Amino acid sequence: MTVLFGQLFTGISIGAVLLLIALGLALTFGQMNVINMAHGEFIMAGAYTTYVLQQSITSAGLSLVVALPVAFVVAGTMGVLLEILLIRRLYARPLDTLLVTWGVSLMLQQLARDVFGSPNVQTRAPDLLTGNVALPGGLTIANNRLFILALALAAVAALTLALRLTPLGRRIRAVVQNRDLAAVSGIPTARIDRTTFFLGSGLAGLAGVALTLLGPIGPTMGTNLIIDAFLVVVVGGIGQLKGSVIVAFALGVLQATGEYLTTLSVAKVIVFVAIVAFLQWRPQGLFTLRTRSLA
Amino acid sequence: MSLLWSRRILAGAMTVVAAAALSACGSKTSDEGGAAGVTADVSGDTVKVGLLNSLSGTMAISEVTVRDSIMLAVEEINAAGGVLGKKIQPVGEDGASDWPTFAEKAEKLISEDRVAAVFGCWTSASRKAVKPVFEKNKALLFYPVQYEGLEQSPYIFYTGATTNQQIVPGLDYLKAQGVKSVYLVGSDYVFPRTANKIIKAYAAANGMTVAGEDYAPLGSTEFGTIVNKVKSSGAAAVFNTLNGDSNVAFFKEYKSAGLTAAAMPVVSVSIAEEEVKGIGTQYLQGQLTAWNYYQTTPGAANSKFVAAYKAKYGADKPTSDPMEAAYVSVYLWKAMVTKAGAFDVEKVRTASDGITFDAPEGLVTVDGKTQHIAKTARIGKIGADGLITEVWNSGKPVAPDPFLKTYPWASGLS
Amino acid sequence: MTAVTPAPPDTAVRQAPAGAVPPNPPGGRSRLRAAAGFAFGAALLFAVAPLVLSDFRLALLAKYLCVAMVAVGIGIAWGRGGMLTLGQGVFFGLGGYAMAMHLKLADAGPGGMPDFMQLYGQLDELPLWWRPFASPWFALPATVLLPMAVAFGLGSLVFRRRVRGAYFAILSQALAAAMVILLIGQQGTTGGTNGLTDIQGFFGYDLDDPVNQRMVYFIIAAVLLALLALARQLIHSRYGELLVAVRDGEERVRFLGYDPASVKLVAYVVAAGMAGLAGALFVPAVGIISPALIGIVPSIEFVIGVAVGGRATLLGPVLGAVAVAWARTALSERFPGTWTYLQGLLFVVVVAFLPGGLASLWALTRHRAPGPASDRRGWSPLGRRRGDRAEVPAA
């Protein structure tokens, strides 16, 4: 029983990580149809931001708190640069964005290697986040996992509110639902695109900070994450966030369960098979945004 | 239309016939030594050697430092007058963490650059990919990393540990500590799977139980479930054969789950000083490693090596076992060539038996029969400063036994 | 292949009212030019290359040509059919493994087992699913038919449910990832990460002998030319027209009474077969097949070559694939430390600023009068392909 609950929580926390790295994609891919393969490298940028900040801020806790907004801005700025320099030219060719950003991701990885060296670097986690909470029955829940879960949920809540309530959010939704109509209504679609890209890339930076608590910080850390994140958005359905949220947690629990019963390799294959089967049932994902634009 | 089609089909058929005819130009009987041996180009006043490591891709995190220490050895040897009066000219290639690329680059170094020897490779997969290339061309590879044994190519010198110089001593140490059950965690590739097979055979013969066995795909960074399983298994220790990035995630998860080095120590065979730096002592302090060399290993040869390395690459750069083995391999090659009096591969191989070198890890001896090296086994504990201090050593160099022929319990393995 | 499709493309075309699809103009001049180009390519591959290149470089060229075969298939599926297949590595791998399994068994001799099985799998006898591959009559057809069967199975599921565009791309990428994990997990019977290495012979020919390596090169070059001829036939057939129509307006084609799913399926299966054949020939040329060749990264690299060369042209993908593979070797030899910058830059610049690929560069400099046949169905130099555009409302 303890094991069961332990696995359930592991699944949820895998889901939280997936959600955090997929949330930015849900914006850039889901809302703007840009397949940004460099998203993983924006995550890497967030992680290295934490590392750099720790060189001057010695308190692990403080540096983590500072790193969150700084990484958001750093990764967001990289995203905007990418948008201005390249992606802007490619909105009509979404599949080409994949290839172009793949090239960009190769260059960013090499850049990280030249700037920070090939080996992984370390960051210190605040002591509070390396411990765990003991529950009755011998069950423990790791604090860093709780922190990431909270961060993911907070990011979802903030993003949802921003999209629902702010004028900017209204404009973003308008552009997603019907770009032409939004444009003739006086919404500066190009600027909205740029802002959306900033937000999406910034969220990747945030995920990077969180991942320093869990995994390696190195030049290739982003590549391992990116496919899972895309799958979450594809299965969740593009154009909205709730699908991604549900799917991230569902895939997390599925993987944790599969892994417990079999092995990690088999669990991964199970997840892929489940995804193909699911897309048979709902080819446009869990939720689809109904628009009047002709697709 | 149909006329057109039949003409097209005819054209297609002709192509096939042409291809079949072409195949007739191959020669079924390979005449004696027809494919053999590109000889190294040593006509000038320099001798080329190949450096084959991954400078890009996932393996670059480990292999770049090996390249650095090979370069250090080359420069030192050149400063001391070179080999047989010739300066060494290193030719570097990037294996790009991709096995077929390793094979391609090995072929290039041998047949285009005509190097006298190649130093490099890290993963077993890259070694397996280049092995036929070296055997076909009768060229030499010096492989500097601990590996899973069960191999003995006439054209490879293995300067890292084989299983009986690293894994078996690690198990002996655990047994001496009274450990009765171990949990095996490894990456999903050849080295961990073979190592774990050996561990299971050892455990069965030595009254240990294996509480569980798990593999994660290479590069995997999600260890929640595996650590849960380890925690509920009740094992006394963990034997860790994870590689690269996975170690970082594993140890972070391990600490978060409340597991400690005191309660359930982890013995790692792929974590050296460089990896410790990338994970953080916060997560590693007190954990055990099995190697043949540590930066803290005493001796004048090591002090000199560490000082030279830090002077060249920076005071914050640690030295580690694979780096040391790579550094030593260049010197061993030099000693073999000097003894043979020629760069000729067969002469070098014949001369190799009994070559000794006062290495940073202590005295090493080349065993000409297996082309492995006798090395001292060392168990170390990771300290708060990120360095590893020795807690046990084998006392004298352990003779290499890649097929574990001298261990009765291993009789079913090879 | 067309058994389950309600309206196989070929018959569909015949049923279509005359004029719905423009008839295939034979265009004497273009045929002549194609024949001349074909002869020129053959001369280059069979006469010039073996003369000027060393054994090592010729072996590399053989490897590039295998990549080019995959590219021909991608050119059909993606350039002509609009399906961005990021999982061609899977088919390449299926073909490669089928061939390598046979060659390993042949090396081991009758009743023998490949070396790695005893070492890592500790198997006493050959696994059941390896056994058929001992026979060349099974293994050789399998190199092509196995990938085609997998593509057919997957494609008929996916296309019928109208999974397309980025969805299809990411799904095919996930397939490559799953395949790699599966192969690595079964180390005892697949060789794991090592793959199948150290292949000695090729149907009795010793692969260590440079003469035989040269023969393998000639076979590869011949097969590539044959595939190019096949692709040209396909592109210039009525089916080829229909494929482009599906790419540019799937719904419209559906309204016209065709079944776009079947049309796409054929292109996808053909591309898979070509990738399988390429994988099979790669094995004797390079002597290794491993999961490193079939995962996400190599699958994307296959596509990059096609994009660089010019996706919708016949020769573009081939030249692009060879150029990218050659650039990779040349750059990494010249600049071992920094070549990835240059490689990344190449992808970015060509795809972002030259959407028609290098082929469009050539066309732009030619300033020739529009030919009667070829221009209409080629790409346009500005790369305004409606296929992509249809997926998003224009910006």
Structure description:
With 295 residues, chain A is mainly α. Chain A has a domain at 15-220. Chain A is 72% helix and 3% strand. Chain A has helices at residues 2-31, 39-56, 60-85, 94-116, 143-165, 167-177, 179-184, 189-211, 223-236, 242-261, 264-281; strands at residues 132-135, 139-142. Chain A is globular and about 60 Å long. The model of chain A has no long low-confidence stretch (mean pLDDT 89). Chain B is an alpha/beta fold and 414 residues long. Chain B has a domain at 163-296 and 377-410: Response regulator (Rossmann fold, 3-Layer(aba) Sandwich), CATH 3.40.50.2300. A seven-stranded mixed beta sheet of chain B has the order 7-6-8-9-10-14-15, sandwiched between helices. In chain B, strands 2-1-3-4-5 form a five-stranded parallel beta sheet, sandwiched between helices. In chain B, strands 11-12-13 form a three-stranded antiparallel beta sheet, with helices on one face. The longest helix of chain B is centred in the N-terminal third of the chain and has 22 residues, at 2-23. Chain B starts with a helix and ends in a 21-residue tail after the last strand. Mean pLDDT of chain B is 89; it is low at 29-35. Chain C is mainly α. Chain C has a domain at 39-292. Helices cover 68% and strands 1% of the residues of chain C. In chain C, β1 and β2 form a beta hairpin. The longest helix of chain C has 27 residues, at 260-286. Chain C is globular. The chains are: A mainly alpha (295), B alpha/beta (414), C mainly alpha (395). The interface between B and C is large, with 53 and 54 residues.
